[in-house]
Amino acid sequence: MNQWAWKPLAAVAAVLLAGGAGAGAWAQAAVEVPTAAVAMQSVGHGFELDGVVQPVKQSTVSAQTMGRVVALAVKAGDRVRAGQVLASIDDREAATGVQRSQAQVAQAEAELRNAQLQYDRTVNLQKQGFVSPAAMDTAEAQLKAAKAGRDQALAVERQSGLAQGYARVTAPFEGWVLQTLAEAGDLAAPGKPLVTLYAPLPLRVVVQLPVSRVAGLKAQSVELQLPNAGGAMDWMRPKAVTAIPSADMVSQTVEWRLDVPDAAARQLLPGQPVRVRFAAGQAQRLIIPAASVLHRGELTAVYTAADQGFALRAVSLGADHGSQGVEVLAGLKAQDRVALDPIKAGLAGAKPAAAKQ
C-alpha cells in the first residue's frame, strides 16, 4: 500500500484517539452532586385555605356638603399625608352663607350695644326715681334678648364656616389612595364617596373558615405563608387572631382576621392572596428538601441516586412545610437519596457525591 493510501487511515486513527482522550477527560471531570436521604419527619398536619391581605386602617372619604366637584387632587396609587386636600367642591354658596352670617353677627352686636346703653340709662334713672320697676324689668329683658341674639348669630357664623370648610375634602391619615370614586364636574352631596384610602401598615389576612371546621381550632394553631427577610416564603404565626363571632348565612363561613407581622407586611399588598394553614397536631410524613424538586411543565420529579448515576423519578407532592421541606405522597420511599441540585444531576456523567460522615 502506498503512502497516499495510509494518510486517510492515519487521520481516522487520530480522530479516534482524540475522542478516546476526550472521553477519559470527561469521565475524570464528572459532576458530583450532593444528595439527601429521604426520611420520615414529624410535621404539623391539618388543612390549608386561601386568605386575602387587607389593610387594618382603610377609609372611604365622602363629601359633607352639596356642590359641584371642582377638582380632584389625587389619583389611585398616590401617597398622601394627613390633612392633605383630596378634592375641592364649589363653595360659592357656602361663602355666601358665611357673609350672611357675618352680617347677622354685626347686626346682633349693634343691637346688643344699643340694649346695653338703654339698660345703663334705665339703671341711672331708677336710682333718681324717674322710672318705675316695670321699665327696669323691660330694659333688663331687652338686654338679655340682645345677648341671646348675639350668641345665636355667632353660632350661625361658626356653622357657616364649618360648611365652607367641608368644601375642602382632606385625608384623615397618612396612606395611599386605593381608588377615586368621583371626577371633576360630578355633583357631590353629603355622604357621596369620593376617595378610598388605606394605611400601608398594619395589614391583616382575612380568611373565610367553614363552620364545620371551626370546632376545636385554636388561635395558636394558625400559620401564614409569608415572605421572610430573605424574600423566600415561609410559615409564620400571626401577631394576633380575631374570630368574628357570627357566621355568613349563605356561605356558612366564619371570618378570621389574622394580623401580619410588620416585617412581612412590608412585602405585601392589599388584595394579595396568602395561604393559611390550620394545624391539627403532629404527624410522621415523608419529607424531601424543596430544592430537590424539578418542575418541567406538568411533570414533577426528582433525581434519585442509582448505581450508574441518577435516575429521574416522577413524584406526587403534598403540603409545603417551609424550611422542613416538602411532603411526598407517592414516588419515593424512606432511605432513597435525592439530588439536591436536579439541574446538575441531569447532566451526562453526573454521579452522587460521597455522603459526609
- Secondary-structure element order, N to C: HEEEEEEEHHEEEEEEEEEHEEEEEEEHE
Second CATH tier, the architecture of the largest domain: Beta Barrel
- Apparent shape: elongated
Q: Strand share of the residues?
A: 35-45%
Discrete helix count: 5
**CATH level 1 class label of the largest domain:** Mainly Beta
Distance between the termini: 62 Å
Mean pLDDT: 84
Named CATH topology of the largest domain:
Elongation Factor Tu (Ef-tu), domain 3
Helix percentage = 25-40%
Q: Which spans have pLDDT < 50 for at least 5 consecutive residues?
A: 1-28
Task: Please describe the biggest sheet, giving its number of strands, its sense, and whether it closes into a barrel.
Answer: 9 strands, antiparallel
Tally of DSSP β-strands: 24
Query: What number of structural domains do the residues give?
Result: 4
Given the helix and strand composition, which structural class is it? alpha+beta
Q: What would you give as the CATH superfamily of the largest domain?
A: Efflux pump adaptor protein, beta barrel domain
Calculate Rg over CA atoms.
Answer: 41 Å
